[in-house]
Protein backbone atom coordinates (compact mmCIF):
# COMPACT_ATOMS: atom_id res chain seq x y z
CA UNK A 1 0.00 0.00 0.00
CA UNK A 2 1.79 3.16 -1.16
CA UNK A 3 1.05 6.71 -0.04
CA UNK A 4 -0.81 8.69 -2.71
CA UNK A 5 0.81 11.82 -4.17
CA UNK A 6 -1.16 14.94 -3.18
CA UNK A 7 -1.47 17.74 -5.77
CA UNK A 8 -3.03 21.02 -4.71
CA UNK A 9 -2.74 22.98 -7.96
CA UNK A 10 -4.41 22.50 -11.33
CA UNK A 11 -1.08 22.79 -13.19
CA UNK A 12 0.53 20.11 -11.03
CA UNK A 13 -2.20 17.48 -11.40
CA UNK A 14 -2.69 18.22 -15.11
CA UNK A 15 1.05 17.86 -15.83
CA UNK A 16 1.25 14.60 -13.87
CA UNK A 17 -1.76 13.04 -15.61
CA UNK A 18 -0.68 14.27 -19.06
CA UNK A 19 2.68 12.56 -18.47
CA UNK A 20 0.94 9.31 -17.45
CA UNK A 21 -1.23 9.36 -20.58
CA UNK A 22 1.83 10.25 -22.66
CA UNK A 23 3.47 7.07 -21.36
CA UNK A 24 0.43 5.09 -22.53
CA UNK A 25 -1.31 4.70 -19.17
CA UNK A 26 -5.07 5.06 -18.67
CA UNK A 27 -6.57 7.28 -15.97
CA UNK A 28 -9.43 6.45 -13.58
CA UNK A 29 -10.97 9.42 -11.79
CA UNK A 30 -13.11 9.48 -8.63
CA UNK A 31 -14.51 12.92 -7.72
CA UNK A 32 -15.48 13.32 -4.04
CA UNK A 33 -16.10 15.92 -1.35
CA UNK A 34 -13.98 13.95 1.13
CA UNK A 35 -14.83 12.48 4.54
CA UNK A 36 -14.54 9.18 2.77
CA UNK A 37 -16.34 5.98 3.67
CA UNK A 38 -16.55 2.55 2.09
CA UNK A 39 -18.90 3.84 -0.64
CA UNK A 40 -16.14 6.13 -1.89
CA UNK A 41 -13.54 3.37 -1.40
CA UNK A 42 -15.62 1.07 -3.62
CA UNK A 43 -15.36 3.63 -6.45
CA UNK A 44 -11.57 3.83 -5.98
CA UNK A 45 -11.34 0.03 -6.06
CA UNK A 46 -13.48 -0.09 -9.22
CA UNK A 47 -11.16 2.46 -10.87
CA UNK A 48 -8.10 0.52 -9.63
CA UNK A 49 -9.44 -2.63 -11.30
CA UNK A 50 -9.95 -0.98 -14.69
CA UNK A 51 -7.34 1.79 -15.04
CA UNK A 52 -3.56 2.17 -14.73
CA UNK A 53 -3.52 5.35 -12.64
CA UNK A 54 -6.25 6.31 -10.14
CA UNK A 55 -6.81 9.96 -9.18
CA UNK A 56 -9.26 10.98 -6.47
CA UNK A 57 -10.35 14.59 -6.04
CA UNK A 58 -11.33 15.95 -2.64
CA UNK A 59 -13.07 19.28 -2.94
CA UNK A 60 -16.05 20.58 -0.99
CA UNK A 61 -17.57 22.59 -3.81
CA UNK A 62 -19.20 25.81 -2.58
CA UNK A 63 -21.14 26.23 -5.84
CA UNK A 64 -23.38 23.25 -5.10
CA UNK A 65 -24.45 24.42 -1.63
CA UNK A 66 -27.25 26.96 -1.20
CA UNK A 67 -26.55 29.73 1.37
CA UNK A 68 -28.87 27.95 3.85
CA UNK A 69 -27.05 24.62 3.52
CA UNK A 70 -24.21 22.94 5.43
CA UNK A 71 -21.10 24.12 3.50
CA UNK A 72 -19.13 25.40 6.53
CA UNK A 73 -20.14 22.40 8.66
CA UNK A 74 -19.52 19.77 5.96
CA UNK A 75 -17.27 17.16 7.65
CA UNK A 76 -13.58 17.13 6.64
CA UNK A 77 -10.60 14.92 7.59
CA UNK A 78 -7.81 14.89 4.99
CA UNK A 79 -5.43 12.62 6.93
CA UNK A 80 -8.07 9.94 7.33
CA UNK A 81 -9.13 10.32 3.68
CA UNK A 82 -5.55 9.74 2.50
CA UNK A 83 -5.52 6.47 4.46
CA UNK A 84 -8.80 5.35 2.85
CA UNK A 85 -7.49 6.24 -0.63
CA UNK A 86 -4.18 4.45 -0.05
CA UNK A 87 -6.03 1.36 1.23
CA UNK A 88 -8.28 1.28 -1.84
CA UNK A 89 -5.40 1.70 -4.30
CA UNK A 90 -5.53 5.42 -5.23
CA UNK A 91 -2.32 6.89 -6.69
CA UNK A 92 -2.94 10.64 -6.89
CA UNK A 93 -5.10 12.96 -4.79
CA UNK A 94 -6.19 16.32 -6.16
CA UNK A 95 -7.01 18.55 -3.19
CA UNK A 96 -7.34 22.15 -4.40
CA UNK A 97 -8.31 25.17 -2.32
CA UNK A 98 -11.46 27.13 -3.16
CA UNK A 99 -9.23 29.94 -4.52
CA UNK A 100 -7.40 27.50 -6.79
CA UNK A 101 -10.69 26.29 -8.29
CA UNK A 102 -12.50 29.63 -8.30
CA UNK A 103 -9.97 32.49 -8.37
CA UNK A 104 -12.64 34.82 -9.80
CA UNK A 105 -16.37 35.07 -9.36
CA UNK A 106 -17.74 32.30 -11.58
CA UNK A 107 -19.43 33.70 -14.70
CA UNK A 108 -19.70 30.47 -16.67
CA UNK A 109 -21.89 27.68 -15.35
CA UNK A 110 -23.26 24.46 -16.80
CA UNK A 111 -26.92 23.61 -16.38
CA UNK A 112 -28.53 20.39 -17.51
CA UNK A 113 -32.19 20.72 -18.44
CA UNK A 114 -34.70 17.90 -18.13
CA UNK A 115 -33.02 15.21 -16.09
CA UNK A 116 -31.76 17.76 -13.53
CA UNK A 117 -35.04 19.59 -13.01
CA UNK A 118 -37.18 17.34 -10.80
CA UNK A 119 -36.50 15.79 -7.38
CA UNK A 120 -33.12 17.11 -6.13
CA UNK A 121 -33.29 19.86 -8.76
CA UNK A 122 -36.67 21.01 -7.43
CA UNK A 123 -35.72 20.70 -3.73
CA UNK A 124 -32.29 22.35 -4.22
CA UNK A 125 -32.70 24.73 -7.21
CA UNK A 126 -29.02 25.73 -7.60
CA UNK A 127 -27.53 22.34 -6.70
CA UNK A 128 -27.11 20.60 -10.05
CA UNK A 129 -25.73 23.68 -11.82
CA UNK A 130 -23.08 23.71 -9.07
CA UNK A 131 -22.39 20.00 -9.51
CA UNK A 132 -22.32 20.10 -13.32
CA UNK A 133 -20.04 23.14 -13.31
CA UNK A 134 -17.47 21.65 -10.93
CA UNK A 135 -17.56 18.25 -12.65
CA UNK A 136 -17.06 19.91 -16.06
CA UNK A 137 -14.12 21.80 -14.59
CA UNK A 138 -12.67 18.66 -12.99
CA UNK A 139 -13.04 16.76 -16.29
CA UNK A 140 -11.19 19.62 -18.04
CA UNK A 141 -8.41 19.44 -15.42
CA UNK A 142 -8.08 15.63 -15.29
CA UNK A 143 -8.46 15.13 -19.06
CA UNK A 144 -9.43 11.93 -20.90
CA UNK A 145 -10.33 9.28 -18.33
CA UNK A 146 -12.94 6.91 -16.95
CA UNK A 147 -14.82 8.74 -14.18
CA UNK A 148 -16.58 6.78 -11.44
CA UNK A 149 -19.79 7.97 -9.76
CA UNK A 150 -21.99 6.21 -7.20
CA UNK A 151 -25.58 5.25 -7.93
CA UNK A 152 -26.18 6.58 -4.41
CA UNK A 153 -26.70 9.97 -6.08
CA UNK A 154 -28.64 8.48 -8.97
CA UNK A 155 -29.97 11.74 -10.39
CA UNK A 156 -26.47 13.26 -10.19
CA UNK A 157 -25.14 10.30 -12.18
CA UNK A 158 -27.80 10.95 -14.85
CA UNK A 159 -26.95 14.68 -14.91
CA UNK A 160 -23.21 13.99 -15.28
CA UNK A 161 -23.75 11.40 -18.03
CA UNK A 162 -25.96 13.82 -19.93
CA UNK A 163 -23.50 16.69 -19.54
CA UNK A 164 -20.54 14.58 -20.70
CA UNK A 165 -22.52 13.41 -23.74
CA UNK A 166 -23.94 16.84 -24.66
CA UNK A 167 -20.54 18.56 -24.35
CA UNK A 168 -18.61 15.70 -26.04
CA UNK A 169 -16.25 15.53 -23.07
CA UNK A 170 -13.50 12.89 -23.47
CA UNK A 171 -14.65 11.03 -20.37
CA UNK A 172 -16.41 7.69 -19.95
CA UNK A 173 -18.84 8.01 -17.03
CA UNK A 174 -19.13 4.79 -15.02
CA UNK A 175 -21.89 4.18 -12.43
CA UNK A 176 -21.19 1.97 -9.40
CA UNK A 177 -23.58 0.27 -6.92
CA UNK A 178 -24.61 1.76 -3.57
CA UNK A 179 -22.65 0.57 -0.53
CA UNK A 180 -24.85 0.18 2.58
CA UNK A 181 -24.48 -0.28 6.31
CA UNK A 182 -25.51 -3.74 7.58
CA UNK A 183 -29.03 -2.45 8.40
CA UNK A 184 -29.50 -1.10 4.88
CA UNK A 185 -28.78 2.60 5.42
CA UNK A 186 -26.87 3.93 2.41
CA UNK A 187 -23.41 5.12 3.47
CA UNK A 188 -23.09 8.90 3.35
CA UNK A 189 -20.64 11.46 4.72
CA UNK A 190 -23.69 13.20 6.21
CA UNK A 191 -24.61 10.16 8.35
CA UNK A 192 -22.20 11.53 11.01
CA UNK A 193 -24.79 14.23 11.72
CA UNK A 194 -27.37 11.63 12.83
CA UNK A 195 -28.18 11.44 16.56
CA UNK A 196 -28.56 7.91 17.96
CA UNK A 197 -32.35 8.11 17.65
CA UNK A 198 -32.13 9.47 14.10
CA UNK A 199 -29.60 6.78 13.17
CA UNK A 200 -32.06 4.12 14.38
CA UNK A 201 -34.87 5.74 12.34
CA UNK A 202 -32.90 6.34 9.10
CA UNK A 203 -33.13 2.78 7.65
CA UNK A 204 -36.88 3.49 7.13
CA UNK A 205 -35.83 5.06 3.81
CA UNK A 206 -34.38 1.77 2.58
CA UNK A 207 -37.32 -0.20 4.02
CA UNK A 208 -39.64 2.01 1.96
CA UNK A 209 -37.62 1.31 -1.19
CA UNK A 210 -37.70 -2.43 -0.53
CA UNK A 211 -41.45 -2.31 0.07
CA UNK A 212 -41.89 -0.56 -3.30
CA UNK A 213 -39.66 -3.09 -5.03
CA UNK A 214 -41.49 -6.05 -3.43
CA UNK A 215 -44.84 -4.68 -4.61
CA UNK A 216 -43.60 -4.33 -8.20
CA UNK A 217 -42.00 -7.77 -8.18
CA UNK A 218 -45.31 -9.10 -6.79
CA UNK A 219 -47.17 -7.74 -9.84
CA UNK A 220 -48.13 -4.13 -9.01
CA UNK A 221 -47.76 -1.85 -12.05
CA UNK A 222 -49.58 1.26 -10.87
CA UNK A 223 -47.03 3.98 -10.13
CA UNK A 224 -49.24 5.91 -7.72
CA UNK A 225 -49.95 2.80 -5.63
CA UNK A 226 -46.23 1.96 -5.41
CA UNK A 227 -45.39 5.52 -4.37
CA UNK A 228 -48.19 5.55 -1.76
CA UNK A 229 -46.93 2.27 -0.29
CA UNK A 230 -43.39 3.65 0.01
CA UNK A 231 -44.66 6.85 1.64
CA UNK A 232 -46.72 4.88 4.16
CA UNK A 233 -43.60 2.98 5.34
CA UNK A 234 -41.91 6.32 6.05
CA UNK A 235 -45.06 7.70 7.72
CA UNK A 236 -44.68 4.96 10.36
CA UNK A 237 -41.32 6.49 11.39
CA UNK A 238 -42.01 9.89 12.99
CA UNK A 239 -38.33 10.98 12.97
CA UNK A 240 -38.20 10.89 9.16
CA UNK A 241 -39.67 13.89 7.36
CA UNK A 242 -40.31 12.75 3.81
CA UNK A 243 -39.33 15.09 0.98
CA UNK A 244 -40.30 12.92 -2.01
CA UNK A 245 -40.81 9.33 -3.14
CA UNK A 246 -40.99 8.47 -6.82
CA UNK A 247 -41.05 5.50 -9.16
CA UNK A 248 -39.50 6.67 -12.44
CA UNK A 249 -38.10 5.38 -15.71
CA UNK A 250 -34.46 4.58 -14.89
CA UNK A 251 -33.07 6.12 -18.09
CA UNK A 252 -35.04 9.39 -18.30
CA UNK A 253 -36.22 9.83 -14.68
CA UNK A 254 -39.64 10.57 -16.24
CA UNK A 255 -42.90 9.39 -14.66
CA UNK A 256 -45.16 6.85 -16.30
CA UNK A 257 -48.52 5.76 -14.87
CA UNK A 258 -47.92 2.07 -15.68
CA UNK A 259 -44.51 0.80 -14.63
CA UNK A 260 -42.51 -1.19 -17.19
CA UNK A 261 -38.92 -2.03 -18.08
CA UNK A 262 -36.17 -0.60 -15.88
CA UNK A 263 -37.60 1.44 -13.02
CA UNK A 264 -35.76 3.43 -10.34
CA UNK A 265 -37.35 4.06 -6.98
CA UNK A 266 -36.12 7.34 -5.48
CA UNK A 267 -36.54 8.67 -1.94
CA UNK A 268 -35.33 11.70 0.00
CA UNK A 269 -36.10 12.96 3.48
CA UNK A 270 -34.76 14.82 6.45
CA UNK A 271 -33.78 12.67 9.43
CA UNK A 272 -33.03 15.12 12.24
CA UNK A 273 -30.29 17.39 10.89
CA UNK A 274 -29.23 15.80 7.58
CA UNK A 275 -31.27 15.35 4.45
CA UNK A 276 -30.67 11.80 3.18
CA UNK A 277 -31.14 10.27 -0.28
CA UNK A 278 -31.52 6.69 -1.38
CA UNK A 279 -32.74 4.71 -4.38
CA UNK A 280 -32.91 1.20 -5.85
CA UNK A 281 -33.38 -0.24 -9.31
CA UNK A 282 -36.17 -2.68 -10.19
CA UNK A 283 -36.59 -4.63 -13.40
CA UNK A 284 -40.34 -4.90 -13.86
CA UNK A 285 -41.14 -8.56 -14.59
CA UNK A 286 -42.85 -8.98 -17.97
CA UNK A 287 -46.61 -9.65 -18.09
P1 LIG B 1 -19.64 12.86 -2.25
O1 LIG B 1 -18.32 12.87 -1.56
O2 LIG B 1 -20.82 12.70 -1.35
O3 LIG B 1 -19.79 14.00 -3.25
O4 LIG B 1 -19.65 11.54 -3.13
C1 LIG B 1 -18.62 11.27 -4.06
C2 LIG B 1 -19.01 10.08 -4.88
O5 LIG B 1 -19.19 8.94 -4.04
C3 LIG B 1 -20.33 10.27 -5.64
O6 LIG B 1 -20.20 9.71 -6.94
C4 LIG B 1 -21.31 9.51 -4.80
O7 LIG B 1 -22.43 9.03 -5.51
C5 LIG B 1 -20.44 8.35 -4.32
N1 LIG B 1 -21.01 7.75 -3.12
C6 LIG B 1 -21.38 8.38 -1.98
N2 LIG B 1 -21.93 7.50 -1.11
C7 LIG B 1 -21.91 6.29 -1.73
C8 LIG B 1 -22.35 4.98 -1.37
N3 LIG B 1 -22.93 4.73 -0.19
N4 LIG B 1 -22.17 3.97 -2.26
C9 LIG B 1 -21.59 4.21 -3.46
N5 LIG B 1 -21.17 5.42 -3.87
C10 LIG B 1 -21.32 6.44 -3.02
Question: Within the largest sheet, what's the order of strands?
Answer: 1-4-3-2-5-6
Shape estimate = globular
Mean residue pLDDT? 97
So what's the CATH class of the largest domain? Alpha Beta
The Cα radius of gyration reads 19 Å
Number of domains: 2
Number of strands: 9
Order of helices and strands: EHEHEHEHHHEHEHHHEEE
What is the beta-strand fraction? Answer: 15-25%
Low-confidence region ranges: none
Structural class: alpha/beta
The helix content, as a percent range, equals 25-40%
**What ligand species are in this complex?**
adenosine monophosphate
What is the CATH topology classification name of the largest domain?
Answer: Rossmann fold
The description of the largest β-sheet is:
6 strands, parallel
Amino- and carboxy-terminal Cα gap: 51 Å
Number of discrete helical segments: 10
Describe how the helices and strands are arranged.
Elements: E1 5-7, H1 10-22, E2 27-32, H2 38-50, E3 53-58, H3 78-88, E4 92-94, H4 98-101, H5 120-123, H6 127-142, E5 145-150, H7 154-166, E6 171-176, H8 196-201, H9 204-217, H10 223-235, E7 240-249, E8 262-271, E9 275-283
Parallel strand pairs: 1-4, 2-3, 2-5, 3-4, 5-6
Antiparallel strand pairs: 7-8, 8-9
Residues 32-33, 39-40, 42-43, 149-150, 152-153, 176, 178-179, 186-189 line the site of adenosine monophosphate.
